[in-house]
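Researcher: Structure for this, please.
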Amino acid sequence: MSSASSDGMALSLLVVDDEPDLRTLYELTLVREGYALDTAGSVQEALACLQRRPYSAVITDMRLPDGSGLDLLHWLESQGRDEKTLVITAYGSAENAVEALKAGAYDYLTKPVDLRQFRQVVASALGRQPQKLAPAVPAVAPTKFPPLPQSALQPQAPQQLPPVKERQQLVKSPPLAAVPTLTALSRLAGKSAAIQELRSLIEKVSRSMAPVLLQGESGTGKELVARAIHDSGVRARQRFVAVNCGAIPEQLLEAEFFGYRKGAFTGANEDREGFFQAADGGTLFLDEIGDLPLAMQSKLLRSIQERTVRPVGAVAEAAVNVRILSATHKDLGAEVAAGRFRQDLFYRLNVIQLRVPPLRERIEDVPMIAERVLERIAADAGVSPVPQLTPAALAQLTRYGFPGNVRELENLLHRALALSGGEWIDADDLGLPESLLDDSLLSGLSSADDFEPEGGVSIKNSFGHDKAPNELPTDLARFLDDVERDILLRALTQHRFNRTAAGASLGLSLRQIRYRMARLGVTADEAEQSDDQA
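Model: Predicted structure, token format:
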């Protein structure tokens, strides 16, 4: 063990590696950054250091003579220590990296270690900026290509890319993400057990660099959750770049993600950076990741794994330091089984999975969410005082299943505020048909128990099955498919098999209802038979 600094104010690091040459290299690199440093060559030496004093961060190799870096992570966790941990793994050992992140590591690096990336990751873990030093140099061998010139990273717009308005729909973040007055975490309204658990998980995962996969139905607020993770972490003052993967034409994906060089293709008149470069130092949120074609998935996997990008038309890769958050409404496990999504990319993205609950599972949060939404709508429209929902309107909202989730509630309140024209929004202003209330199966799914809102109207279990209210189905997937199938048949029958109208009544697009009909085997003949039986 060696001490490398006498500066009492310096951030202190513990570096654990059994190779003396690498320990020396890491020590020289980090001392130049102004850190105080101790080193250890084994798990026992590292534990002895940790028992003597706390550190700002611990950097450990995965394989050590008397154990593994995971042993140190587990010890720190058991002791409730606050040190950030960075794990160094051998090249190609993705399983070890994922295991380390799941064990609580802030981030990982692969050998040979790129020293510029090494400094960036350490600085990110400690919430500071690395000093401007020489170009990237690996710890074992020099780089194959020279670093890119600074001019190659300046963003420019090519002539044949989509217009500015369309591109603003693809990249939904501001140029620089300052910490907002009302953070994304505080915008997650509600006091239900589901939303409180989600807030707790957000605070936990925000402390690391581990990739997070957000699963949830459309309209549940997955991007808001991603912003909350970003705002709660050490990258809060860096950029948050949100990308809708399903909105980018396939032929433009590589140029949009990785940027391009002048002359790379017709119309590439200037160099331009991509989403990865724009999010460098911050967070890249990949929404609807399940919509990416397989060819792009392999390129994305390499960039995430190696933390480098190669712009279209360039010969050298550029290092990037981004945290990856992704979201989808699809079952990626099923997509992998069907051959539509790469298994290795799925494992890389799915280190930590957060499920964003649909609104019907936290129906008790509707009054609070509605209040927040009305305040925002009224402020945008310059309406004062803020309109309030009557008890009858609140009772009606809590009897609705919200297939479109929070997004549907927002649209509903936008319309109701415009139609009410006063200080109160009544049930008639909501425009919800009675057929979708009370006996709606979606409302029945909102809670295992009856929920009684402040207005006094209770929501009863209305599955329409012979099971007792407290009896659980033996096959949940089949049970839910039966429920969804029954709803589709009822909606189609009510609208005389007009799929557009039936879908709209359920908050679905024509494409979505077609997909559900095909998946569940719902046909016109079956809907007619259902009508005759009714």
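Researcher: Any notable elements?
Model: The first helix runs from residue 20 to 31. The mean pLDDT is 78.
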